[in-house]
Structure prediction request, 854 residues.
Amino acid sequence: MVRKVAKAGKAAAAPVKAGPAISPLAPKTLANLPPLAGVRLATGQAGIRYKDRTDVLVAVMAPGTQVAGVYTRSRTASAPVEWCRAQKAGTARALVVNSGNANAFTGHAGFEAARQVAESTAAIVGCRGQEGFLASTGVIGEPLPANKITRILDDLVAAGAAGGWRAAAEAIMTTDTFPKLATVSALIDGRKVTINGIAKGSGMIAPDMATMLAFVFTDANLPAGVLQELLSAGVEQSFNAITVDSDTSTSDTLLLFATGKGGHHPNISKASDSRLAEFRRKLDALLLDLALQVVRDGEGAQKLIRIDVTGAETDAAAKRIALSIANSPLVKTAIAGGDANWGRVVMAVGKSGEAADRDRLKISFGGQVVAEAGARAAKYNEAAASKAVSGRSVEIAVDLGLGQGKARVWTCDLTHGYIDINGSYRS
Amino acid sequence: MVRKVAKAGKAAAAPVKAGPAISPLAPKTLANLPPLAGVRLATGQAGIRYKDRTDVLVAVMAPGTQVAGVYTRSRTASAPVEWCRAQKAGTARALVVNSGNANAFTGHAGFEAARQVAESTAAIVGCRGQEGFLASTGVIGEPLPANKITRILDDLVAAGAAGGWRAAAEAIMTTDTFPKLATVSALIDGRKVTINGIAKGSGMIAPDMATMLAFVFTDANLPAGVLQELLSAGVEQSFNAITVDSDTSTSDTLLLFATGKGGHHPNISKASDSRLAEFRRKLDALLLDLALQVVRDGEGAQKLIRIDVTGAETDAAAKRIALSIANSPLVKTAIAGGDANWGRVVMAVGKSGEAADRDRLKISFGGQVVAEAGARAAKYNEAAASKAVSGRSVEIAVDLGLGQGKARVWTCDLTHGYIDINGSYRS
Prediction:
């Protein structure tokens, strides 16, 4: 079995499945994550669905590690989501993630498979079953062969090492074209702590949340309640502000673990503590970084689109309008074609159901006003407007002129690549 | 100017713009609509946007014609929609429709352009301006050159004739690949009346309603209030039960005119009158026929998909679930690829926000149960399931197992054709 275990910190034994070409929106370089005190990682090949690539990640955390989570709002959530949601103690010792099978809509047997993986891991690590966290991503409705995972757990736990973040991010990929990694450091009361995060996701991405798994680890010493408050707030402007295709997964999972093994800062018991201001800001930045990497890897994406809505009646109204634009196939295909078709933005505002006054609406592409006062802008310039939607990065701004509500969301364009990926591959 | 007017009943002077190849889902033959007492039609070439094809339809109705309408719920509705909504008298003498320009988001000038067309028509026909109904379809945000229409109105009104339904349907096409026509007859108290309808639409199609124009004419003698009640009820199971891309147009307009010139049946003052039962049933069938022709011409459509949801908590919940499935890009691309990916149906049920119990959910493709009791069906047969999604017509049935709510909606698959049409053409 050892040959199937890639020790963390070394390259995986087998190359990661290449899949389609790397997204043109991928970061130029991958973040280099430092080791994190209190976290050991290992990846392995369970052969669940993929051949010749890693498909299992095990993270073992120091005793006392605190955890917070945010999960899909789907009414048909996967077995691992149900398992994680049920763990209320706020402590975690292990995380096991597999790719290739989502263990979703797999009935009672699916939940038993999840339990079996969690309890087997706990027995090896030496903790309670409820301190074992799980996530699965891949095809829906296939029974998960838990024994393929459990039979390599001994080796994986033994192989765990302090580094290996890139290998970890690679093991959880499905249709992703690049691994998603981010790291920041922050001072808490003058003591430096580190936050490392990995994520996966490229389709079935929509609030709330996405076919999206993200695992964030810090060596800060923070209780579960504080972590949950920080995470729930941070997710609104990051993972809950992105959409690729409006489709919400059964499996979305975002976990934040705090080992308390770095920094040695004083105990902090409230998220509102001013000594957490920098940590919160850096955590938010890391969550947004990971979320944008997911959009940048949107299936078939050729352009990253940022949508700012201002002047709506409320922030919630602004977000619904922004998502109506972001999810409109007609807006997304127009931008794919380099067509500054602001009429489709008007349409998407109109269909959102939120208050809008045609004569107060102002629409800009790349900072140029294209429509205002109920009609095309007087200074409208087709060539300049087309240029604003022709690059890799497109900015759409809509001001409703009604109130103070605002929201920012990100999406990508809708291209032939999306059809290719989703019309031929049972992901 | 006469050379630009195609007299109704004859072929238009120039061939209708061919556009992309005719949809493979198009009806084998076009319905042949009989003349309708009290309606005269003419089409012409105003040259608003298209060259070498007709782009204006004028219908002149007999004095006393009653009218009912259903319009888009968009908050950014077009000027013609605003014009029609404002006419409360319930009588109509003329309808002017242009293609190539939606007269939407065109500000005060757009409304004035609409008024100019309506009042010019009224002056020629000899009626009040508010008896002139309007619809425009095409690009959003371009000023409508009303004079291009008004300068040919004299000739068009003079050229009006009792037939010419196919030419009428062709003049209002935009990205449509075939004209949409339907006719039925019904008995009211033993007297035969006829209902003729035409429609256009192929993208930006979603409840409520669609980039969809439909005009239905009957020679029955029914007051506006009765017509409105029949129309509002009929639209729910037809035009409000179809979606191509979830995008709702600024211009959707469905008008029902009753000239009272046929049949000579007794006056009827209530929609609930039992003598209207057959008329209502036939009208509903005609509305559904036209609505399905719109879906069959969905941009890029290769397959017609019917979705039945039963066992939901309410009918409204069932419809939201059905539309969540119908609008899911992942469901639509899977079916395009002939992939019986029922996991994506589970996902779409889960994201709808409506109550669902994984363990009671039952999903069928083409009558074969593929998932039930929280997991893949015991008798699941991949080959048979794939076959069920491989033809031109696909039937998905979902039973929630919770209550009595049910709904049926139609959509089409999402293909490369949709991207081609919408990524390169400012429709």
